[in-house]
Amino acid sequence: MSVLRSVIVGCGSYLPARIVTNDELAAQVDTSDQWITERTGIKRRHIAADNELTSDLAAAAAKAALAQANLEAAAIDLIVVATATPDQTFPATATRVQEKLGLARGVAFDIQAVCSGFVFALAVADNFLRLGQANRALVIGAETFSRILDWEDRGTCVLFGDGAGAVVLEAHAGIGSTADRGILASRLHSDGRYHDLLYVDGGPSSTQTTGHVRMEGKEVFRHAVTNLAAVVGETLEAAGLKAADLDWIVPHQANKRILDATAKKLGLGADKVIVTVDHHANTSAASVPLALAEAVADGRIKAGQLVLLEAMGGGFTWGASLIRM
Ligand code: ACO
Same CATH fold, 182-324 and 3-174? Predict the structure, then answer.
């Protein structure tokens, strides 16, 4: 039987030029490089320029992914943008990206699952491709989280950064084993009971303002490690594989301590974990594709290797995707 599978044929990323160090933040709020480094592993983050929008970051990452795939934008018939910081309440940032890429065909829409957004978007695009509803997709995670931070709240403003990452997904026929390239399995979850632990205190329907990120950090941390380890196990099991089969895990980059605790729970060595949180901070939906693009570009992640992406975010939402590169 001819099986359709979604194969990653290009990765790209974009980071705003401005870098803000922990010491620069310590000049603005009551914090220190030592506290931020010890509690989170973060040393610096990129912050978008005033005139840079989420769609600008997303379009730049998309162009880099298309270049790596050796494709023109015209080859794309689906654009899915994961973001919690859209340019406007509507239309979808994906339609802005579509226009910036010079495209007038296909379908473009946004996915909102905060830090899990890219993993959710990848699963949605994978379903489109495997059902034959699209042939080539751009899946993008892009955020200007700096715009929704309360810069007087030291408990949150030190944790986040801006950026974008993208992949080109292509439907390939005639493959079926776990040794063949493509997305092998994805698993997604949501649980709305945890709204109050991580949310934005604004929105068009509630306050008619944009609002700021609010978080109970300790509680989020506790849930993150448990949920992430569980969904990784579930995704591997769906493909009949084990943690020991993985070449790399590309986690959502929220906090180095969450990365370490999750890897330990899965019995994975630190040498299998892609870490970018030190220089990107938490870029929400952009963090996984940014880390993936970096590790592909520097040659750590190679064709044929088994890679697992995982993320957790507000909602709560969490999920994982297992990919043969
Ligand atoms: N600088 C200095 N001190 C600080 C700062 C700061 N930036 N932020 C908080 N503190 C202080 C607190 O006020 C508190 O002081 P107190 O003891 O006098 O009251 C003390 O440090 C300890 O605060 P906690 O919140 O208990 O610190 P904790 O060890 O839990 O670390 C952190 C906080 C880093 C937020 C941690 O809980 C965490 O990383 N949680 C995960 C949250 C996360 O990553 N969310 C991202 C979105 S969701 C996701 O991506 C998974």
Answer: yes
> 189 an active-site residue?
no
Distance 111 CA to ligand 1 centre (A): 28
Confidence (pTM): 0.97
**CB under 6 Å to ligand 1: residues?**
31, 35-36, 39-40, 115, 154-155, 158-159, 198, 215, 217-218, 220-221, 224, 252, 254-255, 282, 312-313
Helix 256-266 to helix 33-40 angle (10° resolution) is: 20
Separation of alpha carbons 137 and 122, rounded Å: 9
Give the pLDDT confidence of 144-195 residue by residue, as tens digits.
999 999 999 999 999 999 999 999 999 999 777 888 999 999 999 999 999 9
CATH superfamily of 182-324: Thiolase/Chalcone synthase (3.40.47.10)
Q: What is the largest CA-CA distance in the chain?
A: 62
182: alpha, beta or left, given left = phi > 0 and alpha = psi -120 to 50? Answer: left
Interval between CA 225 and ligand 1 midpoint (Å): 16
Q: Is 252 a catalytic residue?
A: yes
- Residue in 115, 157, 212, 280 annotated catalytic: 115
For domain 3-174, the CATH superfamily is Thiolase/Chalcone synthase (3.40.47.10)
